[in-house]
Write a structure and sequence with these properties.
Layout lengths: L1 H4 L9 E5 L8 E5 L1 E2 L4 E2 L7 E5 L6 E8 L2 H7 L8 H9 L42 H6 L12 H8 L14 H42 L6
Antiparallel strand pairs: 1-2, 3-4, 5-6
Length: about 220
């Protein structure tokens, strides 16, 4: 919905604002950003990406990318940066580094001498089925589950639910004996029904014929 309506994100990573004047015939306008050295435009594709910069332009965070929207960039990034204490310290150092609306560097920024918090890096020695370069999109789709164990125990199920009545159905495919018995039963039932209908129809037809004959032979008195 946001991409169809072309609403800009709060971080201005998909659209940028350009200021003009009366000579330019506009005061402010939004221009779509091009990523990856201008080779990919967010209006055309939502898979555009480029390395994520934090602080000065020459400071690049490894395996963290910027997409057309914050959620796109997050899904295409990996967690490799968070296995390095230096990378985490770099992020904490430039947390307050905000660029201006036109993308220029902040007017006054002094790197802190003491980091605002202590964040320990991820432990790479812990075994995992996910590699460090696995994208966050895959981690989310897998629900960050390392191993899923399935245990089936009807005994524990009935102990937990404690049902008072249990009803089950057993389905099986009909064999040749069942089919033959059903056909013979159907044939016998149809035979009895047809015999009943035929006999009663004959009796009714004969009674109706006799009634017509009696009316024809009836002598009517004359006045």
């Amino acid at each position: 919905m946001f991409r169809a309506s072309m609403l800009p994100a709060a971080f201005n990573n998909d659209w940028s604002f350009q200021y003009g004047n009366q000579l330019n015939d506009y005061l402010i306008r939004s221009v779509s950003r091009s990523l990856n050295n201008g080779t990919c435009n967010c209006v055309i594709s939502d898979t555009c990406q480029e390395s994520l910069h934090i602080g000065p332009l020459d400071l690049v965070l490894p395996d963290l990318v910027k997409g057309c929207s914050p959620i796109d960039g997050l899904q295409m990034s990996t967690l490799e940066c968070f296995f390095s204490s230096n990378c985490i310290d770099t992020i904490l150092t430039y947390l307050e580094y905000y660029t201006q609306m036109d993308g220029s560097s902040p007017i006054s920024f002094v790197p802190p001498t003491v980091l605002p918090m202590i964040v320990h890096p991820l432990d790479n020695s812990i075994s995992s089925r996910f590699l460090p370069n696995t994208s966050i999109d895959i981690l989310i789709s897998e629900l960050f589950v390392e191993q899923l164990n399935t245990t089936i125990s009807y005994e524990n199920y009935f102990k937990s639910c404690a049902p008072s009545i249990c009803h089950y159905e057993y389905e099986r495919q009909n064999d040749i004996l069942y089919v033959a018995t059903s056909v013979l039963g159907l044939y016998g039932g149809l035979t009895i029904i047809l015999r009943f209908i035929t006999w009663n129809s004959t009796v009714l037809l004969q009674a109706f014929t006799n009634y017509l004959r009696m009316r024809r032979t009836m002598v009517r008195p004359t006045a």
